Every structure is written in structure tokens, then in C-alpha cells.
Amino acid sequence: MRINVGGKLWLAFFCTLTLTVLTMYVMLHSSLKRGFLDYTSAQSIQRLEILQSALVTIYRNEGTFAGLQRDPERWLQVKSIIFSDSPGMFPDVGSTAEHQQISQKFYREFVSSISLFGREKNLLMGVIKPEKTISWVPLIDQGVTLGFIGFVKPDVVVREVDQKFMAHQLTFFGTISVVILIVSIGVATFLTRRISRPIVALSTYTEALASGDYRQRLEVKSRDEIGQLCDNFNRLAQALEANEKSRANWIADISHEMRTPVAVLKAQIEAMQDGVRPLDTEGLALLEQKVSGLNALVDDLFELALSDIGALSYQKQPLEFDRVVASCVEQFQAKAGYAGLRLSHLLPPGGPIRMHGDAKRLGQLLNNLLENATRYTSTGGAIEVELSENADTVTLQVRDSAPTVPPEQREKIFERLHRLENSRNRSTGGAGLGLAICTNIVMAHQGRIYAEDSPLGGLSIRVELPKQSQ
């Protein structure tokens, strides 16, 4: 038989409460009985003061208890004076024979539990009852101990009135225990439903989430761990929904990026086959351009995929980063000039900037940043590369002139396939993978990359890299 979470919680509450109530009842029963017997024992010991006075008087007159030892009847008469001044110890005249019989039994039990002992607690009169607790009442005359009265504490309630009192108290405790148990079960049922309801809902919504329905959301009704779990579920569903949309957009964007050059290639080849376009150097150059663009896209996708799964290799070693920057800027001068842009760099005059990293990947980082700046900077503008350092960090900045990027878009430009323009013309906008690859390279060097305003009027990409990356 399969028990759900609500049933298990209710069963746990029920068993715990039942065990608690039963334990309380047993403890109350034991405590009441023990306390009542202690109370009756204390009353009995108080009554022994009469016998104590009588025995001291006998010893003072006779100088010994030998007379009592020789005459057991006299010993019984002496003990009977305990009840001589307390008629209330016995039932009223109108009591039934049964009540009188119980009272006589109590009298006999009480009297037989009294013994007389000498100074060394040696038995003089009475009977020793083994395994019984004895209370000692000393017989003292003018500071001299004459002997002891030994009183055996009762371990059962004998009198009917005492039994009725205890039965009434136990019935009262039992009734209270049952009421507490019933109320506790009601509270346990309410709490069980309150706790299990969001868990059951979470299980149902999780099954829907696993089947691909990422629109599921849970209503958060509490601030405890269950409420936090529901909130985490909503965050997970939201993230999965966003990832699913991103995946769909990714496939659509990649398909579009690859369809355009493939369509151009197909059209040009068909035109050459039909004789519409001659098979000359110009036509082959166009085909080569589209193939190169498609190859660059495939290479970018491959690099990004490798960096995402952590398979992109890094050969980190000590290097002079200023040389890497100077080499990249020099190689990009021709392309910047062809685009009508001025490219310059500013290096610190204090000698080489040393750090630990992968020179090839850092060169790829700067090339992607320069490629991005070249594509999006208007003709006649400028691009500046500045390198600086402090005790622990190397800072690389690539600044360009107008146009700039709106502040609300600056975090998104590092996402793959995100571009500000709507067209998908790779000759102006690119595939939108360069900055995503830059982000992965910077993260692999335990650095950070972000965009800010450029003093030239465009955008500035700032890269901060630790000198000792692992």
C-alpha cells in the first residue's frame, strides 16, 4: 500500500500525539498514586506522635520495654490508642457492613505495619516485612534515644474513600486526555493538509514541466521552506521557458545566417550554369566571398560551442600583453583604413605589461573587439585601444566613435546572436557571436567584461584581467 506525503505526515502527527497523551496519562496515574500514598504516609506518621508519647512514658516509668515484650496484648492496646481521638478515621454509624469491613481492614493493615525497635534498630515487637520501605520515628527522652518506631509505608490504597478519590481524578485526567487527543488530531489534520497541499501541487506542476509545459507557475502563499521551494520552482520554470525561447531563436537565427550565403551561392552557380552570368574572375570572387563568410560563421559557432562545454583549449603561460595588443592593432590597421576609420593605441610607457594567460586566445579577444568596433563605427570615425595596469589587474579598453548603444541594450550585446539592427546582412552586422566568444575567453581568465560610454561618442568595451589567472 502506497501512502502519500499527506498520509505520512498525518500518521506521524497522530502517532506522536497519541504516544504523548498516553505517556502523560501513565505518568499522571503513577504520580497521583505515589503522591497520594506519600500523603497518607505523612498523615499516619503524624498519628504516631500519640504512640511515641505513650512509649516514652512507659520507658520512663519502667526503665525498659521488657514489659511490652512479655505481654503482646498490652502492645496491641498501646498501638490502639492511635485511633482513640479520631472517630473520623472510621465510617459513620450509618455505614454499611461492607464499609465497616474495609475500614477494619485498613485498621489492621495500619496497626500491623507498626513495630518497636531498640536503640540499635533491633526488633523488639512486631514483624519485619522484607522489601518494604520503613519510616523511622525516634523515641527520645531528654536527649537520649530510647528506641524507634518502625512504620511500613503503604504501597496500595485500601480505604474506599481514597479509592473513589483516585478513581475520580484518573477519570478526570482520562477525559482531559481524550479531549486533548481529539483536538490535536483535528489540528494535525489541518496542518497536514496545509503542508501537503503545496507539495502535491508542486509534484503535479513538476510533471507538467518535465513534459515541456514551461508556463506552469505556483502561487507562493508562505515564506517558509515550502514557500521558498515554490518560488524556486517558479524561477526554474521561468528560466526553462526563457532557455526554450532562446533555443528556438538560436535555431532560427543560425538557419537565417546560413541560408543567406547558401542562397547566394546557389543562385550564382545556377546563373553560371545557365549562361546568364559568365564564369569569370569576378563571379568566382563573389563565390569565394560567400564561402569565406559561411566558413567564418561555422568557425565562430564551433569556437562558441567549445567554450560553452569547456572544451576550448587554453595554453596559459607568462606573456607580455602589450606586445599582443600592439601586434593585433598593427594587423588591423589595413582593415580599419579600408573602412575609413582611424585606429590608434595607447600603451603605458613604463615597460612591458606581464601577465599569465593564453596569448592566442587573448589575441582572438582583441581581434573580435576590433572587428565589432569596425563593423559598427560610422565611416570617418575613430577607434582607440588603451592598455593599463595596476598591482593585480590589467585593463584593456576598446573605444569607438558614434553611433553608440542605448544603456538598456549594453548587457544584451554580449548575448549570442544579439544585434541592434534588424537586418541580417553579415557585411554590416555580422552574426552576433563575436562578443559572446569574448565573454567566454574573459571568463576563462577569471576576468570581467562590460560596456560603457566612450569619450569618442560611441561605445567603450572594458576588459579587466587578473595578472595571475589559473
TrEMBL record:
Its EC number is 2.7.13.3. GO terms for molecular function: ATP binding. The keyword Glycoprotein does not apply. It comes from the Bacteria. Residues 193-245 form the HAMP domain. It is a multi-pass membrane protein. Residues 253-469 form the Histidine kinase domain. CDD domains: HAMP (cd06225), HisKA (cd00082). It is an enzyme of class 2 (transferase). This is histidine kinase. It comes from Gilvimarinus gilvus.
